[in-house]
């Protein structure tokens, strides 16, 4: 039997028994402490630094570089429990850096939650229709894998299934309560909560059996999750709230796609539309010229959210959001000050497009030979782990990183092509393209199109819509009829299931190559 370690929080007297070898950041999450970790726990950003003492694993070389000069501190995403530990940490610290507007303490507000496979966002909707982003954090279910298939497999174990549900509920409740504490607003003033996300994330949040979602015939038996009480989903703190989810189409097309598409659609079914929600699980909806609606999903992986990229990060201080050439040199935009700590998905797209334009990467996705002439400070080098391209300071992208981006692009393009074919809709017939997802409005549309994540639509208007999953949940809080309209929209959709189709693989392979590079 695994040994139990006692973790004690200071100040205060909070203690918990946590299994040995647990990563400290996960132990703290179990105790209601959501430590920020924009780099997804890879020890890059240093945002999870905590003062800790006791029997912890020895620091790795990468951790040593960050904790040097911070005596008595450890990276909570790297340190593991070997025995009893004391941690000095203020519970409300993560939210104190945020600035929230003042709210009438007697107001009745709503809470929107977007449970993404990689990240979670929560916002507060006020009576006048204004929406306030409360928090954005990494989904704590990541310890069970970075994609829905891994979590479905893990959930075959009843104890793991219960833990997956407990973790996401606790993370959301803890995050919201911390924010409300800073705002001096009472939790019982929240009268309604709407949850959005893909089908697996919604099923896990509401404690439903997920195994049928991952095995043929991929059935989602419950498509409408509504009229839940707080006690039903472990959210007793919000005693005055009614809880429901955005409507689901199928095992692979969830409330995020149904809600997002419903939010963006103008109601004119005569206009051909291509909608894509980018994420670890990409979802696509096509309206053809005959007003028929078809939807599909594809496994893109977490590259665009930074989780399988060696220097990838979510939004936060030190993350590069854009890269470009200025006066022949590589320049960047970054959140906050200091030295860059990591790349967002939008910056990753920018740099990949720049590498193609400069010849640093071939159409097949391979880095050029070491020493290839590139704009400063870009430099291709060879190491024990293969080739990589140096960026700024300690940042570099490996060949594996670029392959992960290429796999996401290939999956997205292949699924798009097949759904258009199933819809009987040519690229020239599409009049409006909507690009949604956590990449938000920071996406450089030109670079995105250059990498060919989706086909080129020559006659279409392109729209960057941001996180429509969260926005749809927020709309449902202020528009009592929105979920009914989203259900009606869902009922007009026909799913095209791509999982397991023999004809998907050749289209996927054909979609992997990039369209243009100066270095063929």
Any chance you could write out the topology, listing elements then pairs?
Elements lengths: L3 E7 L4 E5 L4 H7 L18 E8 L4 H7 L5 E3 L5 E8 L4 H4 L12 E7 L3 E7 L5 E8 L9 H7 L3 H26 L6 E8 L1 H7 L36 E4 L9 H10 L8 E6 L2 E7 L5 E7 L19 E8 L2 E6 L7 E2 L1 H14 L20 E5 L2 E5 L5 E3 H25 L8 E6 L7 H7 L9 E6 L1 H11 L3 H10 L1 E3 L8 H9 L8
Parallel strand pairs: 1-5, 6-9, 9-10, 11-20, 13-22, 14-16, 20-21
Antiparallel strand pairs: 1-2, 3-4, 3-5, 6-7, 7-8, 11-12, 12-13, 14-15, 17-18, 18-19
Helix pairs in contact: 7-11, 7-12, 8-10, 9-13
Question: What would you note in describing this structure?
Answer:
The protein is α/β, with parallel strands linked by helices and 520 residues long. It has 13 helices and 22 strands. The strands form five sheets. Strands 21-20-11-12-13-22 form a six-stranded mixed sheet, sandwiched between helices. Strands 2-1-5-3-4 form a five-stranded mixed sheet. A hairpin with a 5-residue loop joins strand 7 (119-125) and strand 8. Mean pLDDT is 89; it is low at 92-96.
For the biggest β-sheet, the strand order reads 21-20-11-12-13-22
**First-to-last CA distance:** 56 Å
Spans where pLDDT lies below 50 across 5 or more residues: 92-96
The helix fraction, in percent, is 25-40%
Largest pleated sheet: 6 strands, mixed
Structural class: alpha/beta
Cα-atom Rg, whole angstroms? 23 Å
DSSP helical segment count: 13
Molecular shape: globular
Beta-strand percent range: 15-25%
DSSP strand tally: 22
Instruction: Quote the average pLDDT.
Output: 89
């Amino acid at each position: 039997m695994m040994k139990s370690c006692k973790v004690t929080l200071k100040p205060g007297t909070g203690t918990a028994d946590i299994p040995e070898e647990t990563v400290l950041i996960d132990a703290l999450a179990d105790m209601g402490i959501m430590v920020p970790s924009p780099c997804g726990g890879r020890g890059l950003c240093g945002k999870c630094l905590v003062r800790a003492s006791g029997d912890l694993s020895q620091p790795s070389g990468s951790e040593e570089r960050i904790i040097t000069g911070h005596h008595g501190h450890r990276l909570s995403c790297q340190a593991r429990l070997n025995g009893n530990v004391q941690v000095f940490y203020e519970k409300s610290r993560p939210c104190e850096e945020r600035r929230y507007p003042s709210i009438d303490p007697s107001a009745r507000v709503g809470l929107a939650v977007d449970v993404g496979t990689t990240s979670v966002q929560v916002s507060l909707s006020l009576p006048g229709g204004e929406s306030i982003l409360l928090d954005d954090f990494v989904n704590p279910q990541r310890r069970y894998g970075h994609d829905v298939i891994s979590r479905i497999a893990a959930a075959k174990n009843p104890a793991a299934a219960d833990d997956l549900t407990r973790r996401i509920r606790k993370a959301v409740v803890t995050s919201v309560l911390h924010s409300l504490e800073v705002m001096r607003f009472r939790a019982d003033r929240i009268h309604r909560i709407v949850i959005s996300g893909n089908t697996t994330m919604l099923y896990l949040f509401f404690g439903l059996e997920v195994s049928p979602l991952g095995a043929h015939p991929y059935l989602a038996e419950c498509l409408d999750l509504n009229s839940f009480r707080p006690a039903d989903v472990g959210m007793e703190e919000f005693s005055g709230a009614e809880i429901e989810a955005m409507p689901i189409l199928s095992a692979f097309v969830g409330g995020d796609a149904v809600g997002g598409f419903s939010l963006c659609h103008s109601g004119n079914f005569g206009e051909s539309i291509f909608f894509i929600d980018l994420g670890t699980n990409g979802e696509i909806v096509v309206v053809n010229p005959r007003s028929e609606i078809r939807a599909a999903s594809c496994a893109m992986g977490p590259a665009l959210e930074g989780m399988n990229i060696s220097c990838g990060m979510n939004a936060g201080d030190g993350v590069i959001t854009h890269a470009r050439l200025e006066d022949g040199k590589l320049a960047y935009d970054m959140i906050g000050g200091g030295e860059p700590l990591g790349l967002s998905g939008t910056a990753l797209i920018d740099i990949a497009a720049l590498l193609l334009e400069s010849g640093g990467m071939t159409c097949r996705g391979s880095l050029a030979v070491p020493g290839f002439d590139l704009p400063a400070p870009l430099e291709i080098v060879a190491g024990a782990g293969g080739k990589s391209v140096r960026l700024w300071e300690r940042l570099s992208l490996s060949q594996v990183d670029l392959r992960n981006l290429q796999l996401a692009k290939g999956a997205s393009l292949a699924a798009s092509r097949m759904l258009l074919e199933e819809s009987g809709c040519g690229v020239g017939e599409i009049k409006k393209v909507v690009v949604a997802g956590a990449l938000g409005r920071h996406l450089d549309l030109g670079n995105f199109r250059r990498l060919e994540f989706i086909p080129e639509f020559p006659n279409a208007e392109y729209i960057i819509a941001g996180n429509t999953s969260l926005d749809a949940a927020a709309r449902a809080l202020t528009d009592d009829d929105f979920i009914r309209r989203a259900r009606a929209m869902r009922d007009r959709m026909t799913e095209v299931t791509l999982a397991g189709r023999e004809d998907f693989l050749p289209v996927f392979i054909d979609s992997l190559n990039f369209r243009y590079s100066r270095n063929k």
